[in-house]
Amino acid sequence: MESLLAELRTAVGAAAVLTDTDVTAAYRRDMMPLAPHGTPLAVVLPGSTEQVQAVVRACAAARVPIVPRGAGSGLSGAANAVDGCVVLVTTKMNAIVEVDPDNRLAVVEPGVVNLDLRAAVEKHGLFYPPDPSSYDWCTIGGNLSTNAGGLCCVKYGVTTDSVLGLEVVLADGELLRTGRRTVKGVAGYDLTKLFVGSEGTLGVITRATLALRPLPQAPATLVAAFGTTGAAGAAVSRVVREGVVPSLMEIMDRTAIAAVERYLKTDLAAGAALLLCQSDAGGEAGRRELTAIEQVCRDAGAELVYATEDLAEGRDLLAARRAVLPALELYGAWLTDDVCVPRTKIAELITGCERISAEARLRLAVVGHAGDGNMHPTVVYDATSADEFTRARWAFDRILELGLELGGTITGEHGVGRIKREWLAREIGPVGLRVHRAIKQALDPDNLFNPGSMFTPA
Amino acid sequence: MESLLAELRTAVGAAAVLTDTDVTAAYRRDMMPLAPHGTPLAVVLPGSTEQVQAVVRACAAARVPIVPRGAGSGLSGAANAVDGCVVLVTTKMNAIVEVDPDNRLAVVEPGVVNLDLRAAVEKHGLFYPPDPSSYDWCTIGGNLSTNAGGLCCVKYGVTTDSVLGLEVVLADGELLRTGRRTVKGVAGYDLTKLFVGSEGTLGVITRATLALRPLPQAPATLVAAFGTTGAAGAAVSRVVREGVVPSLMEIMDRTAIAAVERYLKTDLAAGAALLLCQSDAGGEAGRRELTAIEQVCRDAGAELVYATEDLAEGRDLLAARRAVLPALELYGAWLTDDVCVPRTKIAELITGCERISAEARLRLAVVGHAGDGNMHPTVVYDATSADEFTRARWAFDRILELGLELGGTITGEHGVGRIKREWLAREIGPVGLRVHRAIKQALDPDNLFNPGSMFTPA
User: Fold this and answer.
1) What is the ipTM of this complex?
2) Cβ contact (<8 Å) for A183 and B372?
3) Within the 199-238 window of chain B, which residues sit less than 8 Å (CB to CB) from chain A?
4) What are residue A345's phi and psi, to 5 degrees?
5) Taking a C-beta distance cutoff of 8 angstroms, is the pair B252, B317 a contact?
6) Closest CA to A140 of A167, A163, A112
7) In chain A, which among 174-203 make CB contacts under 8 A with chain B?
8) What residue spans in chain A does CATH classification 3.30.465.10 cover?
9) Looking at domain B96-214, which of 3.30.1360.180, 3.30.70.141, 3.30.465.10, 1.20.1280.260 is its CATH number?
10) Which of these, A192, A298, B94, B456, is most buried using a 10 Å CB contact count?
11) Best residue in B49, B160, B181, B184 to probe A by mutation, most A CBs within 10 Å?
12) pLDDT in tens, B193-217
């Protein structure tokens, strides 16, 4: 392997090849504690597309697998090292190459932090919608690889909806350009959307052309408290049916509410469930949307509804939602799941999670993006107890089972990675799995990229 | 081949297997006069997914290629027969299986006519956005295969943006289910968006789950006339930069205006270019959008700007835009192109087309979806003159060249088919072509589906 290391040093410079295990340990895994991870041969941090190509060619020749990663904020183990691999970190490729306000697009390298892009385009009155919870440290490359979502999705879609084109280094080191700079285009297969969400299994994304939107109006915020989960679920369905598209619609269950109340030392005056909604339509249109949501919540039996156009107050209310995970940390380690169910099934998912919590004898809080049915039931366990870890893992799997039973999917935005591989096979079935393997084989015949993640090769 | 015909009759019933060449002639080609087409062995009209599977298995065993098609409204020759093939027509599979207003989705068979789906969901206060010009007779299956667009795209995107999941019969007759019923989901590769726009080269779509939107407000309409093409182009760029998202923004050049004035016997009071915009935001928000567009047009030097909230008047103005092709027919046969350029390049495209028109010595009208840069320069020629046909074809190709030079794509919404195969290779380059061939090979190793369309196999 010494000759490979020498080649890597030639390719990216000696300082950008890390082999000290004390240093490389930080690049062994992402934020998902359940997923297995190995020890890499080396961690390389290329600074350009050409350097990525050289790294890929060297590893391909040596038959050493490559695990691409960004900041490592993922929650599926898709960026986890396998033993003896090269971890290819894109964080040094962090240039915002271009912002073109007249065509509402940006060209970026993969290492750009989501928040940095948001800030850069905001100066031009523009908006890059995808906003995963880790937006202040996750990178666009990771967002692309996982097709990341966030709070914005109910109105603005997920990452794939904002991508016009990609530059990807393939397994033979060749550079593929997909898509275009225009907002429409149907020349050939939609390779752009095939690579988005492929979790580093098909190539290394080295550049992306992203579609931007006009900056929305300042949001107005509404919070509604419900005495029963069913009432909150009915309100969500009714908002969808009424044709209102809020810019944010989040739900917190009883356990999440209690944790946040304890953490923030506040009284949310909520019983079984809290709905938090925003409209960024602005002015009369925004008021019309919030009034419609308020009426729906009251009709569904909300015990309290409060709406405000005050920005600071809106931020405070949103802070309660964002505090759920830190609040749960006061009880122990958390393991967050990620299922997406039809929007009519949210109440059933929450009550099902209450049953799972009781059976697992573990605290389980449900928080999620109610507007699109993407829920994050989060199990709390004692990380020092092997028994609790086992029960947490059991609960994690039962939640996936419940999601599928309700007509949903095993992952709404976190991805499959190394933690839901068997569940992917279950969701997509043998024909779906065969097609996945055929596409992987077609693009990466030697299984160079992220081997064993998402699915096992043929 | 008699044994194959017998098998097909067993599969779909004798009445659904057409072999009389007088009858099958109607299924030999789509609406693009330039594309080559052959004579099919048979035309089959299956009535169910199971029947499609039986047809695919029979043809695969006999090594007879299959060309899938819907209504045949396409403009790229992607549905054109090759000699000795089986044309698989999906128009009999025209059930709207389900409309679910609470989850804002519909499940349909491929033969449903676009307009019929629009009407069915409108009863529930819902909206299926994709609206190609042929919406009153084209089918959803064809829309999916070509990733069809229309006038709605500037605000609502193209077909792929409205698809949640598909059911596809693969080359071995197996049934693949892609996607889901939820609005978010990242379980595995995005096979749904790979099949959308694949022009029948990877499988036969037999069912689709489509995302619906709330029915928009009644549109307000604005028309602006410009003395120079540059001024109209500047207005489009400025609308984009100002962050206004109209629900429709169409442009007509001098030649298109003159043709429509002659056809409708009206005076559009326009010089070099006409912009037609709508806002469906409703009420104050709609007025705010149109006021912003009006100001932009005046600043850009519009000679006339007229806005109306009157629905009938708006429809009349839109009718002028929709009349361009019939109006051109008064001069001769038309050959419509389909390039998409960055929105800042529209004026350059139009002036470039004026040069091409002069060189080709043929009338050339430019009409298009200015809001997304998707332009349809349309050449008029005498169909009885071989020389004019040759010059029309020459102009068609020069327009594609110009589109690429301006940083655009060779097709914004019509597709590649049998008419732009060489241009696709030019746009995506050798690496892109190799990836296309690898995916085709992975999913359709015997080149069963639509052979020779979009690109030549490896």
Assistant:
1) 0.97
2) yes
3) 213-215, 237
4) -110, 10
5) no
6) A112
7) 174-178, 180-191, 193-194, 196-198
8) 96-214
9) 3.30.465.10
10) A192
11) B184
12) 999 999 999 999 999 999 999 999 9
